[in-house]
Amino acid sequence: MLTTARKRARKADVVAAIERMRLLQIDTIHVVARSPYLVLHSRLGHYQQAWLDEALEQGRIAETWAHEACFVPAADVALHRAWRLRRDGHWAHKHAARMDSEQREGMDALLARMRESGPVRASDFSREDKGASGWWSWKPEKRWLEALFARGEVMVTRRERFQRIYDLSERVLAKLHPAFDVAQESIDEVSLRRHFILDTVRALGITQSRWIADYFRLRPAVTDAELAPLVEEGRLLRVDVDGWGVPGYVHPDWRDELTRASKGLLRATRTALLSPFDPLVWDRARALGMFGFEYTIECYVPEAKRKFGYYVLPILHRGRLVGRLDAKAHRSTGEFEVKRFFLEPDVKATDAMLEDIAAAVAETAQWHGTPAVRLRQARPTHVAAPLRALLR
Prior knowledge:
The structure is a single chain. By secondary structure, this protein is an alpha+beta fold. The chain folds into three domains: 1-49 and 268-391, Aminopeptidase (3-Layer(aba) Sandwich); 59-119 and 141-187, no CATH class; 189-267, Orthogonal Bundle (Arc Repressor Mutant, subunit A). The chain contains 15 helices and twelve strands. It has helices at residues 11-21, 35-44, 50-57, 77-83, 91-102, 104-117, 140-150, 169-174, 189-204, 213-216, 224-232, 255-262, 284-291, 351-368, 384-391, and strands spanning 24-25, 61-65, 69-73, 154-160, 163-168, 237-239, 248-250, 271-273, 312-317, 320-330, 335-343, 372-379. The strands form four sheets. A five-stranded mixed β-sheet has the order 8-9-10-11-12. α14 packs across α15 (384-391). The radius of gyration is 22 Å and the shape is globular. It starts with 10 loop residues before the first helix and ends with a helix. It comes from Dyella soli. Pfam families: AlkZ-like. This is Winged helix-turn-helix domain-containing protein.
């Protein structure tokens, strides 16, 4: 996220990006590109969205519950399956436990069908009543599939038009590359928690202890006292950060970057639009503490209470979160609509900044297949005219 990629993205870069982040959150909203595709675009630039789907089908990545529903590297699947029992407080696991208790016969019948006939989709099963939205309005087979997925009895073998195709876990695990490591499923809880802590710090780059647990939804919260042994062992680096008042932590893998940063030599040049579900911003406390950026994913907020819009994309500019925009991609007309554009109150727009932001918007729109960009409103209002000119 610091610099623009120098080379055109390749298929292997998709898996490599997920390996660096350790997970890629899945969300189905597609006002713009669906979140996982947009997160990858912010890091890779132009790439083919089909590469993510192919990586899943080929077993290079897998779906599991992690931060939320996520794609994770194939090498980590056993670790997430081992941690599954520690997620019993999550809504999906609570519902799965209830399904297992109350409707196990139906779940077993569904497993038997899959064993005999192969993978299934929720849409393979019909229902007569429409119902309201939510878990309990779903047709029984969909609830059973979700419960079996949360329990690890089925997995997603591939997606078609982003719809999950489920299969028995043993079949999906058999195609993982690298191969599924059964021994990792029995790793002890202390070692497993330490593993996720170290992965989180590596993925975040630099962090406070209080921001670590959210990444993999660890419980209880991570503390400085818990991290002290990892620092003593050299598995983490403890650093002082101006203005924090608490220790910062860096993974040793980033030692060279830390040295460059301490000398003022680490320069951010990338400008990109971020998904609302990007790991850079999904933790509101970290977004505020790291960037002074107050952010709420407002698609889940009633319209009357929204401050910025339905699907608001944060704007990363040279290491700062400088603004946000409410966007909608009109695929039928090829138009990328920026309903409202906002700069942060303390950000002073420069010609170079507006040029970079316009280029990032145009890049995203072009990649998305909606190259005609229309800007409707901007705050402050004086940036609207130069932005429109640049976007033309």
